[in-house]
Amino acid sequence: MGRHEERHEEFREFAATRGARLFRTALLLTGGDWHAAEDLVQTALGKAYASWSKVRRADNRDAYVRSVLVRTHLTQRRLKSSGERPASELPEGAYGDGDPALRVALLQALAQLPPRDRAVLVLRYWEDRSVEQTAAELGLRAGTVRNRSMSALAKLRDLLDGDRESLTTI
Amino acid sequence: MVRLDEQELTRVMGEAVGGVRPATHELVEGATRRGRRLKARRRVAYSAAACVLAGVVAGTSLLGSPPVSGDGMRTLPGMTDGGPGEVVFPDFSRLPDSPEVPPGKEPLTARALAMTLDQLLPQNSENAGYSAQIATNADEGKAGTGPFDGIVLRQVEPRTAGPGVGIRVHSEFHRTTDMETLFSCKAGMDKRTYVYAVRTETKSCGVRNLDDGSVLMLLESAPGSRAQHAAWRLRPDGLLIISQSTGMGSAEPPHSLAEMEQIVSSDQWQVYVDPEVNERANQLEPFHEIRGEVAPRLARTETD
Prior knowledge:
The complex is a heterodimer. Chain A is mostly helical. Chain A has nine helices and no strands. Chain A has helices at 3-29, 34-50, 52-55, 61-79, 100-111, 115-126, 131-138, 142-159, 164-168. In chain A, helix 1 runs antiparallel to helix 2. The N and C termini of chain A lie far apart (50 Å). The relative contact order of chain A is 0.12. Residues 81-90 and 165-170 of chain A have low confidence and may be disordered. Chain B is an alpha+beta fold. Chain B has helices at 6-17, 24-57, 110-120, 179-182, 257-265, 275-281, and strands at residues 74-75, 106-107, 130-136, 148-155, 164-170, 189-190, 195-196, 202-209, 215-221, 228-234, 240-246, 272-273, 287-289. Chain B has a nine-stranded mixed β-sheet with strand order 1-8-9-10-11-5-4-3-13, with helices on both faces. A two-stranded antiparallel ribbon of chain B has the order 2-12. In chain B, strands 6-7 form a two-stranded antiparallel sheet. At the A-B interface, helix 1, helix 2, helix 3, helix 4 and helix 5 of A face helix 1 and helix 2 of B.
């Protein structure tokens, strides 16, 4: 196997093992738009493929590709005027375990936040990134991330107020 | 009832999407297809930008001539020879991986690039018109290939290989890995941009830091054929600006080395500008937008 084929296979293995996790992140970022999340993951992984010689040398490939994913999402959101599809239109069969009511409530609430606030929440609380790491990935100041995180969480809390019961009964 | 605090949000997110099972095979196939297309587009985009310089390298345009020995070169006063350890490069680690167009701004057009040069050159200097090209690549940038590369030429006479001044800007040049070698009086051709820094005719050279942390390199050839004055500036925001004034035959370059330094030192060079700037530039004449052609031999930009 030549070097090109080896790297091609290396990328495909990476994409196959990380694809699901990236998709879940994308689903949160897009506020539950399944099709936009698929498109986002394919775009981010496509960029990783095109720059695989650089990605494979990164200290943390996962973080590198996730950063591409988040930035691609924010760029797309700025360029496109179309809104996300509501979570209730998503293919139920692909969801697996979990509470459907909770999922719909959370994704619909997330969809109402500005994309950058959503990205802050997803990186901080889904990807478990520190304030500093989140700031670096989004190109923001740490203080800005703290403020956005607090205000976005408060807004999310308000949006979910009517659904709080479903959130606490799992 | 539990308050939705930080820990609770982590748990709720995990519960909401943790069990989601996408069609991974389709994701991988789609990503591979997109990646291949992106790679192909990058090659074409890079070639289009590089072809402008291909003529240059062949000595048929304003910016070009063969490389380089460096022997017998004089170091300009107050400067170093450059190379590893001689100057301090800005810390580019905080620059974003995927730069975004700031709100309310838009990428500079080729005509606006020419207008910037027009504003920086002496108003009484001869001008037979501008030619310019912007090569944009909205995907991940890399040195010499975007997301914003621009070239503008202003000629003294309306002929391709005549004397004049040329500017190149590269918004992502900070991603290059061997800047210390390039910013050196021993530098040869930069394989990402196909620009020769130091040439056989270069007789004086110097590299130093500017107050804002930029790295400046000045190059001056001896009087004679293909005489040239050039200034390179790599700014802390990652933007590389190259300004070169080239003579023809035994004629001196139309602009001095000091003028080239002044041009690259200007903060007017911006990649993203207010829409009015591009609009105003529509008045600039005479102007010709360069349409690059693919140069296959220069298309090998991928490192894999």
